[in-house]
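Troubleshooting entry. The earlier prediction with coenzyme A gave an output that would not parse, so I re-checked the input for stray whitespace and re-submitted. Clean input:
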Amino acid sequence: MPSSVGAPALRAMDSTVLVPMVRNPLSSERALADAQEFPAETLRLVGQRRDALRRKGDLWADFFADEVRRRIENGSFLGVLWFGPGGEPVALAHWEPAGEVGRRGQVYLGEGFQRRSVLEAFLNRLESGPTAHPPFVSWSDEIPGVSEADREAVFAGRGFFGVVRADMRLPAGIELPHLAPLPGYDPRALSVADETRMAELLFRVYQESPERALFATTLDQHEEARRGVWNVLHGEVGEWLPRASFGIERDGRLIALTLANDFEGGLIAEVGVDPSHRRQGLARRLLSLTTDALRSAGFGVPRLVVSMWNPGAVRLYRSLGFEFVPGGASRIWLNLRALGVSRPPPP
Ligand SMILES: CC(C)(COP(=O)(O)OP(=O)(O)OC[C@H]1O[C@@H](n2cnc3c(N)ncnc32)[C@H](O)[C@@H]1OP(=O)(O)O)[C@@H](O)C(=O)NCCC(=O)NCCS
């Protein structure tokens, strides 16, 4: 039983005003409540999802569950729980603090409720109500117990576009080729003093790329690039590793970079080359420096995450010997229109 069934806490969060009891076709009465007020029930659903993700070999299973626990403990968790009439938790949705573009959410259904009709009804419930709600602009597709076809029907039916993201790793023993230096394109290690230049480069790198829809929180692309670099350098994705992060300058401007972090091992968090300097082997050269540095610093197998609507990057990594991690693919559903991005051509 939830810790305070019958009196779900009402709290304005993220401009969402919760309504205690709702009527819907699936049940005579269900209550929507602030998940932060029901830690035991929230963590039970999160734990069920973590176990399901572990069973499928998902590398991030524990990370996501730990992150929820941390946020509940420090009081910053944003989410709603949906209770059945007997007080049983039916579904949980949670999200990052809403950005200017909207909310990025994750949704799970409790055991016994894992079916398409419940998912559909819960999403309808979340999207109804006061119009001041920031819209959901993305949903994670990791919803154990609901079939891929049903998830597809629900999210595509709501106008979301599915993108598969996949973990890749460079197996031990595979050495990246050391290409001859390109005159005038000398790589150097990066430092925090380069932060502004990194952001300027990433603005140019992602300006025309649909990739930015994956994480954007604001439609101001300069600001987005600044935030992206800040997150990598200042602890949002583990500890930044300047000694494994490299850049190339041309005419006083940074035109290519790789950024690596210690995020449960060596993670290549960013690879970007200025559009006017592509296909000259700059990414290949920087990746070989970064992977060597990660290995010699004892970080083991270098990893990265790539989206399948970025076939050029997939080809780049595969050509270097990176392989897909089994169980390491996940889909994210995006509202491209709200994110200001046009649908990419099929790979
Ligand atoms: C992906 C990216 C980093 C590649 O940089 P680059 O310096 O142009 O890459 P390289 O010249 O080293 O390319 C090496 C190989 O990768 C593959 N490749 C790179 N870009 C490609 C593209 N657009 N289409 C097809 N293959 C591509 C090719 O096999 C290429 O070898 P080739 O030129 O001999 O055919 C660059 O296009 C970029 O910054 N893209 C936007 C940001 C991004 O998507 N980053 C990756 C996020 S996971």
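This one parsed fine. Residues 205, 209, 211, 271-273, 278-284, 306, 310, 312-313, 315-316, 319 surround coenzyme A (CB under 6 Å).
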